[in-house]
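In the previous chapter we treated chains in isolation. Here, by contrast, the input contains two separate entities that must be folded as one system, with a combined length of 870 residues.
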Amino acid sequence: MDSTSATEASFPRIIIVGGGFGGLAAARALSKAPARVLLIDKTNHHVFQPLLYQVATSVLSPEHIAAPIRHVLHRQTNVTVLQATVTGVDVGKKVCLVDGVPLPLPYDYLVLATGVRHSYFGHNEYAEYAPGLKTLTDAVQFRNKILGAFEICERTPTPQDHLELLTFVVVGGGPTGVELAGAIAELARQTLAAEFRRFDPASLKLILVEAGPRILPSFAESLAAAATAKLTKLGVEVRTGAPVEKVDAEGVIVRGERIRTRNVFWAAGVKGSPAAHWLGVEADRAGRAKVLADCSVPAHPEIFVVGDTACLEEGGKPLPGVAQVAIQQGRYVGRLIAGRLKGEPAPPAFKYFDKGNLATVGRNFAVMEAFGIRTAGLFAKLVWAFVHIQFLVLTSSRIGTLFRWSWKLLTRQRLARLIIEPESPRDARSQPVHS
Amino acid sequence: MDSTSATEASFPRIIIVGGGFGGLAAARALSKAPARVLLIDKTNHHVFQPLLYQVATSVLSPEHIAAPIRHVLHRQTNVTVLQATVTGVDVGKKVCLVDGVPLPLPYDYLVLATGVRHSYFGHNEYAEYAPGLKTLTDAVQFRNKILGAFEICERTPTPQDHLELLTFVVVGGGPTGVELAGAIAELARQTLAAEFRRFDPASLKLILVEAGPRILPSFAESLAAAATAKLTKLGVEVRTGAPVEKVDAEGVIVRGERIRTRNVFWAAGVKGSPAAHWLGVEADRAGRAKVLADCSVPAHPEIFVVGDTACLEEGGKPLPGVAQVAIQQGRYVGRLIAGRLKGEPAPPAFKYFDKGNLATVGRNFAVMEAFGIRTAGLFAKLVWAFVHIQFLVLTSSRIGTLFRWSWKLLTRQRLARLIIEPESPRDARSQPVHS
């Protein structure tokens, strides 16, 4: 079905790596450009990362917050989507190396929007015990782990095991950690409370630890205090000034104190994906590629890095790793390339338009800081819900998400409480049967 | 939260193994019985197996066709639900052996509703290459495999690989095989057709093989012919009288002919779970426990086997392995036990009330045989949809499923087209980053 015409075959090649907010925005901004756009992502879907915690805590299904990238872009005929893993870039030869694709893929323009991964601050051995939440796979594994802990408690009669199983530690007091802790508290205390016979799921111990002096450092202090009060009311113990000194099979050591637990979730830090490494350009301490004012990298006006994996300073401070920055940078770079193809003059430097910050705690509370308004409570939660629904890429996801949220609000039911094992036990299939 | 009163502690113990249609129906029929009911299932959810193929082909999400068993039964206070694997039964000591539970669990009454697994007719080595569809895990793996085949084609330029990747063989012409083949055809030819650039997903080759003389042997011959015609129209090649002689890494050998493919799906046969083996009772050729007219096993009036894993003859023919038989037997046995606890006389023998047969092919066609009515086409499809919606256990699943079906009908979109890898690549997390 290669319907490329002779003219199209001469169009410049643009490779976008990553189908997150940044990559998708760049591809869309190129929709009318005379170019052959190739978008490559490791997975087949765009995922709305800010709602991953709702999949992990059984509110939403993976399908609500993720959409097949090729479906999102299928009407845009100048885009080809590949599910594949980029392993490197040869900036001299202008090619991407892609796992499973025999020949390197040439580009005239390259947009890297490869995001971040978790940072364990030099302790990669923590990863095994303290998973983070960046992909649908992570979210489904979290869900299995949280629900599985309750199931084990119900079937094991020994209370000393229960203590470890029912202690949940969330490391990191940013929005992700705060939202996750609140959601686990609600899951246990509201949804699951009446469904177990042999122990009380509401008896769980939930601790949010933050190394810094307070949670939600990107928000005003008054909002952080309101969020802390709300978390405490939901039964979350908030420990600030509490750096994690060790994570192992038995739990965590926080400021000298050993907390025994089998459930540690990591929301403490990120580092840039290998984009800077591929390009051989300077990176900041978090591994993010330092980019120029137009998001290109020094000495390579044809290579751009956007979103979480780029480090761009505005007013002496690096832009935060949030969806809005990625979307705006992606769109900016897409338009810049489209303009350059048309011979237009270069646009002014990228400028971030800050639409504010939101974080939610529990079902009827959020904190919000936007356009000079600071508020905590139900109104902020409504804004939060509205904004998040809006950013889902598919109409069907919006309808589904609205339905799930309404249903949960009315019934406190969480419909996605499934433990789906990644593998069927092979022996169960081949076991001999008496006959 | 063990709120068992002194009276309750003296109630007889009833263990139900399996939370499928049979086990759930038995538990519900015991809702008012003075008994301590323990329902044990390997998974935490009841799954509506007849719709698993719709998860495998990206129409529905796992959450639509599955519900947490403890949620379904949470209002029934005499039931405790355990997610655990039963490994055996000691009929002399009247205990169940359960993996991960240190002490054997005693029962006064035992109901085994453990279902079936796939049968490869003595060739268990086929399982690796020709998975079957019985669990959510199976369905998610099917979905990954089907969608993954298209993704590989899009990124590999060599057409000889495409041939193997784009050939799909479904083994078994019963309702499961027929529905699955029709759904794969629609997925490729309607939903995916416009979304790939380098090859045409509609060019896939789809073969349904059946060893017997025709498909849908449980239906009238005219309906089987109508279904064959519909499948052919959808682009499925139907081969009957075509026994599978071998399945291996390269594909299948069907009646002497080698078909090269990486996608073989097994819908050809089942065998009973080890229930008969656990009990040491006689089993039929498919490994199903032969039961008496009241679903109990010989010499053990306190042990019952229901559903797919039981073999009960009516009019000289064993009852079919369908949901209706399991539901009716489960309910019968639950009521029988409840009656016996009240000292009521034994009920008459179990009698199956046959509500008929349905199978669907594509979006606007089904075949139906019920109450003397035989019909093929849109009307049967509407009945099919109505019946299937009705049997979903949760209201929320019904609403969600109706929405997805309507959406697909209107837009031909399949919303659940996600490839979710079971594991995150560990190295991606611990890989060093340039800084």
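Chain B is about 35% helix and 25% strand. The CA atoms of residues 424 and 430 of chain B lie 11 Å apart. Compare these points with the single-chain example from earlier in the chapter.
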